[in-house]
Each structure stands twice: as C-alpha cells, then as structure tokens.
C-alpha cells in the first residue's frame, strides 16, 4: 500500500513539474517573441546574437529557439 501511495505522489509531482515547465516555456516564448519583434526593427549589425552566416529564421522560429534554449536553465537550481 505504501508503494502505491509513493508511486501516486511521484506521478502527481511529475505532472505538476511538467505543467510548470510548459507554463514557463510558454511565458518565455511570449517574452522572446517580443524581443524578436523588437530586434527585427533594429538594423542587423545592432543585433549581437544574430549570426550573419546562418539563414535567417522567422520571428516565431527565432522566439521558439530562444525559449527552448533558455527556459531549461530555470530548473537547474
């Protein structure tokens, strides 16, 4: 019986952490979307993170890439 309770708790904690990660990913995507839109208004030489040799991404793809890169760092503590 104890193992069932522990398994249920672990499953519940896993679902909660999954929801938290999705929430943080969605919020960071929206924040990076704003950054990507503002960056598109700037001249290309003023964007230090843009690589001139790589084919440019869409604003959505750029925001998604940034969110997928930086959001997992929140859980490294």
Which descriptors would you attach to this protein?
77 residues, mainly alpha, 2 helices, elongated
Q: Can you walk me through this structure?
A:
The protein has 2 helices and no strands. The chain is mainly α and 77 residues long. The protein has one domain. The protein is elongated, with a radius of gyration of 18 Å. The mean pLDDT is 81.
SSE layout and pairings?
Elements: H1 2-41, H2 59-70
Helix pairs in contact: 1-2
Brief rundown of the structure:
With 77 residues, the protein is mainly alpha-helical. It is built from two helices and no strands.
Shape summary: elongated
Indicate the multimeric state. single chain
The overall pLDDT, averaged over residues, is 81
Largest sheet: none
Domain module count = 1
